[in-house]
Design goal:
The protein is α/β, with parallel strands linked by helices and 307 residues long. The chain is built from 12 helices and 8 strands. α7 packs across α8, α8 (185-195) runs parallel beside α9 and α11 (270-284) crosses α12 (291-305). The structure holds 3-hydroxy-3-methylglutaryl-coenzyme A and magnesium ion. Magnesium ion (MG) binds next to loops. The site of magnesium ion has 7 residues, from loops.
């Protein structure tokens, strides 16, 4: 399969990235981050989660974040909604897209959303119906599609099964998520070769965490399968509160560097995103997790010094 001409990068830093921060990140910083990302031209930003604040306290200010951001025409603002309560809050907050999130592993489903896979699909049904009724986009995210921190191996058939259940709910897009970043290019190929038989490849996305340093290789393997939507987190922010040791998503800057090198359009400027990565890393007191971002910043410093 030939390489695509363009891909869509979904920036998930404000949600997947910040949800794992132990210290409360001020709401104003979250709003500033989302605004900078939309100004940089991202077509889709995962802004926050309408989940139980008992489970993920960092996302307790979801309504304030959504009320505080400046909407840029051309950017879709997505939020996570595990149940109808979350959906109603998302609707009130004028989200463009709601994300139901399940897992390909029973053990992870229990830890993350406190129910079995079958129970989660039953819980998502009214959310999906309400999203359709209200004309909102619906995305389904499948955790542990390439491995689980509790059960280890996840059979390809389990991933295909959840993709089919999400397709039946009417998902416009489905994320294949490597929650703990254990996947390899071979496994990525196997998964996408199987799931593209049951759901359109242009509506599937790759959501890779970079724990084992495989995310860029896995994205390349996905491109070879015709996948054109990728999730990434500026400065490589994040981890997962229910997956110990998992590091952040692949850094957006690293993905942009890859796409630029391949001549694949993203509509987003790498230099600009590098500056946003430095802003948020400084704001939350973390080292910048993007390799490309750090290299570009070092280069800029060096050329400033030699002037
Ligand atoms: P539960 O405890 O079984 O549910 O949690 P419950 O209905 O008994 O509710 C417990 C309390 O939470 C109640 O409050 C509810 O009102 C409240 P109380 O009566 O005790 O005061 N509550 C809510 N509050 C606000 N918004 C809501 C909401 N729902 C209930 N929507 C539940 C079940 C699903 C709610 C819980 O397990 C939960 O919120 N889990 C979220 C976990 C999460 O956010 N994980 C991280 C995101 S997933 C991820 O990162 C993976 C992804 O990136 C892909 C990948 O990499 O794999 C997407
Ligand atoms: Mg994730």
């Amino acid at each position: 399969m030939s390489m695509p001409r363009a891909v869509k990068i979904v920036e998930v830093g404000p949600r997947d990235g910040l949800q794992n921060e132990k210290q409360r990140v001020p709401t104003a910083v979250k709003i500033d981050l989302v605004n900078q990302l939309s100004e940089a031209g991202f077509p889709n930003i995962e802004a926050t989660s309408f989940v139980s604040p008992k489970w993920v306290p960092q996302m307790a200010d979801a309504a304030e974040v959504m009320a505080g951001i400046t909407r840029r025409p051309g950017t879709l603002y997505s939020v996570l909604t595990p149940n109808l309560k979350g959906f109603e809050a998302a609707l009130e907050a004028r989200a463009d897209e709601v994300v139901i999130f399940g897992a390909a592993s029973e053990a992870f489903s229990q830890r993350n959303i406190n129910c079995s896979i079958a129970e989660s699909v039953a819980r998502f049904e009214p959310v999906a119906r309400a999203a359709k009724d209200q004309g909102l986009r619906l995305r389904g995210s499948i955790s542990c599609a390439l491995g689980c921190p509790y059960q280890g191996e996840v059979p390809v058939t389990s991933v295909v099964d959840v993709v089919q259940r999400f397709a039946a709910l009417g998902c416009d897009e489905i994320d294949i998520a490597d929650t703990i970043g254990v996947g390899t290019a071979k496994r990525t190929h196997e998964i996408f070769a199987a799931v593209t038989k049951v759901f359109p490849r242009e509506q599937l996305s790759g959501h890779f965490h970079d724990t084992y340093g495989q995310a860029i290789a896995n994205i390349y393997a996905s491109l070879l399968e015709g996948i054109v939507i990728f999730h990434a987190s500026v400065a490589g922010l994040g981890g997962c509160p229910y997956a110990k040791g998992a590091t952040g998503n692949v850094a957006t800057e690293d993905v942009l560097y890859l796409m630029n090198g391949l001549g694949i359009e993203t509509g987003v400027d790498l230099q600009r995103v590098t500056a946003i990565g430095e802003f948020i890393s400084t704001a939350i007191g973390r080292p910048n997790g993007s390799r490309a971002g750090r290299a570009l910043l070092a280069k800029a410093k060096e050329s400033q010094g030699s002037q």
